[in-house]
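Thread: Modeling a multi-component assembly for a lab meeting

Hi all, long-time lurker, first post. My supervisor asked me to bring a structural picture of a complex we are working on to next week's group meeting, and I have zero experience with this. I have the sequence lines for every component (479 residues in total). Could someone generate the structure of the whole assembly? Inputs are pasted exactly as I received them:
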Amino acid sequence: MAIFDKFQQLAAVRRALAESGIQSINVVMDRVVSATEAIVNGRPLILAGTNNYLGLTFDPDCIEAACHAARTQGTGTTGSRAANGSYAVHVELERELADFFGRRGVIVFSTGYVANLGMLSTLAGPGDVFVIDGDCHASIYDGCRLSGADIIRFRHNDAADLDKRLRRLGGRIENTLIVVEGIYSMLGDRAPLADIAAVKRRYPGAFLVVDEAHSLGVLGEKGRGMAEEAGVEAEVDFVIGTFSKSLGAIGGYCASDHPELDLIRYANRPYVFTASSSPSIIASTRAALRVLRSQPHLRHRLWENSHRLYARLSGMGLHLSPEPSPIIAVRFDQREKAFAGWTGLIERGVYVNLVLPPASPDGSSLLRCSVSAGHTPEQIDTIGNAFADLQTAGGLD
Amino acid sequence: MHTYDSILQIVIELVKPLAPEGRGVREDTDLVSDLEFDSLKVMTLIEQVEDRFDVSVPLNILPDIRTVRDFTVQLQRIIGEK
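Re: Modeling a multi-component assembly
Sure thing. I ran the full set together rather than chain by chain. Output:
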């Protein structure tokens, strides 16, 4: 097989999309107007397919903090955290995150993907074992693969299946890391983290890693995520997450009480060999974290919006993801129907994500809506109306 | 005690319902090029095999598997390590 032959299947899918007039991949936002609105191909759209859960991308304090940092500290660090790229602000953000999570230490990474890649590939090595939820994000799979450890999947959100797999490991338990997410990105369903933590307790020596990418700022009384919501933070050894969703920027973190975390920093190749985040990114992230901590009403508004849209779509009899969540997926057995639905929503002024297998968890195609605290109730109703109008026109059959 | 042949028969039995209609499944059948298995079908097959033999199959073996024979050889090793 020649080098480029393996891309032919992908090329065929892209051709089929192009022939259908679908341009859902690599949509170019001509102009983003607010946290929930953009112009695409001259058409104003309500954004219902971003991860901007708290709507902070246009928060005035975050923007001002970023501008001030760029003016005073420059546009980039031009170096790794391990070399010239550790500024005082990176360390201050790590201290603030450690305080927020109530953890001994935090490492800040340049992206959420690098956080998972770096932590998982460094924590484990050949001879160790990852037992991961089958629906985990690609960055988790990639980090596990890079480690050289054995990778075993357990059935999605099935604590009994996790238990069975841990039992089979016998004497390897002390070399085992369980990896789950707080909220899963495709269907927006939550991990049964209390049950998973209870299983972990039955296997002393096993470690638990929770990726809170979609649950930071979304779940828990303080917004710390699923582990806080489930009351099991003490059972979680490593919390990993991102700044690119509820904090409206880009970057990643790992928080832990294990004193070895600081050693992991120096052995962590994706961390050592990546340029650090620019001061403006760090500044807006710190400002967004202050907003997250001081304005819990944003979280409440997010959930009000999520329940409002879920109830509307559910009332229309659509095949939805299992529970109300900031991620609401409408499921289709045939990808052509999802294509048509996606185009129909664009024509009605609403942008959602089109998700096709194998990115979707069970072979179905998804129109994935993401709700934001920045959406007004009227915008949520407009999104619902677009689905309803499309359904009336036969575009969701 | 499972032998290579007994594992092979069970693997063929589990692969058949996942294969396109009318395609035969033999020891040298290639899961991807002959049966058009995608990642979802591979994961389904692994889950069924895990339940049948009460083992966990590490994903790390996947790059070494092209045929039913390859999968059976790896399974025999994993079952032997139980």
